[in-house]
Amino acid sequence: MGTSFRNNLFMLYRGDYTYIPEASKFSAQGLCVGNMKFAGFQVAYLIWGFMIITIILFIICFSMGVFILSLIFGYIDWLVNKVLQVWPGVLIGIALVIIQKILTRFVFLQGNAQHLLLDNRRFYFITTYFMFFYNIFLGIVSCFMRIIKSVAVGILLLARLDSSLMPRKFERFDPGFSAYIGYIQMEMAQTHPVVLVFIQLLYTLSRERKSIGVMTMSTNESDIILMSSESETLQVVIPMKKVVRNRSAQFNWLVIYTLLQNPSVRMYRKGFIQLKRKAEKEGLKIPISDKPITDFDLVKLQEEMERENKP
C-alpha cells in the first residue's frame, strides 16, 4: 500500500493520470471529504477484508479436507463419472482455443504476429464465420470464469483502497477508492515540489521587494528638513522621487506574458475549469483547445445547439 501510494503520488507530480483520475473530474468538496474519510475507511476495510478472507480460506480448506477424505475412503465413483462426462467438451474447447491462436500467429497476421496487419483476409473471414457457433459455448464458460475471477480479485483487493473494484468509468461509485482519490489529490496539492519551490521563490521575491521599499522610504524620510528661527519654525519638505507602481497591473502583465509563452497552461486555470464545468452542466461540448473560453463563447454554443434542435 505504501509503495503503491508513493508511486501514484510521483505519477501525479509528473502529470501522469494513468491510474489516478484528474482532480478536475471531482469537486473540491468531494476530494476534501474523501481526504477526511481515508484514515477511517482504511481501518474499516482492513477489518472487513480480514474477516472475509478468513471465512473464504476456512471454506476452501474444509472443502479440500472433505475431498481428501473422500479419496481416502474410496468415495470417488461419482467424481470419476462426472469427469468422464465432461472431459470431451473440455478437450474440444481447449483445442479450439489453441487452433485459433495458431492460425492467428502463423496465418492471419503478418510478420509472425508482430504487427496488427491482416494477411489471407478471405480465409480469416471464413474462419471467423465458422468459429462463431463454437465461440458461443466458449463464451459461456468464459463468462463463468470471469465471474469467478472478479469475485476472487474483489476479495483479495477488498482491503486495498488504492485499487478500485469497478471499471474506470464507474470508479466514482466505489466509496473506498473515492476516499483514496481525495487523500492522494490533497497530498499532491499540498506537497507538490514544483509548486512549493515556485511559491517559495515568490515569497522570497516579495520579501526582498518589501525590504527595498522600506529602505527607500527611510531614505526619503530624511529629506524632510526643519528650519527654525526665533519666531517660528518652518518645515521645508523636499519632493521625494517615488516610483508609483501598480502591483496588480504588473502582476496581470506577467500572467499574460506567461500564458502567451505557455498556451497549454490556460486549460489548467481556475476560470477555464469553471467554464468547462458550467458547459458540461448545460450540455455543451467544448472542444479541447488551449484557446481561452468566455461566457460569450458559451452563449454562442448554446445558440448553435438551439438552432440544431429546431425542426
Automatic annotation (TrEMBL):
Give me the segments passing through the membrane. Answer: 45-74, 86-108, 129-159
Q: Name one GO biological process term.
A: vitamin A import into cell
Q: Give the record's keywords alphabetically.
A: Cell membrane, Membrane, Receptor, Transmembrane, Transmembrane helix, Transport
Q: Where in the cell is it found?
A: Cell membrane
Tell me if Membrane is a UniProt keyword of this record.
Answer: yes
Q: Which Pfam family name is an example for this entry? A: RBP_receptor
Q: Report the GO molecular function annotations.
A: retinol transmembrane transporter activity; signaling receptor activity
Q: Which GO terms describe its cellular component?
A: plasma membrane
Top-level taxon: Eukaryota
How does the UniProt record describe the way this protein sits in the membrane? Multi-pass membrane protein
Supply the InterPro entries for this chain: STRA6-like
Q: Does the keyword Membrane apply?
A: yes
- Designated name of the protein: Receptor for retinol uptake stra6-like isoform X2
User: Native species of this protein?
Assistant: Biomphalaria glabrata (Bloodfluke planorb)
Q: What is the lineage of its organism?
A: Eukaryota, Metazoa, Spiralia, Lophotrochozoa, Mollusca
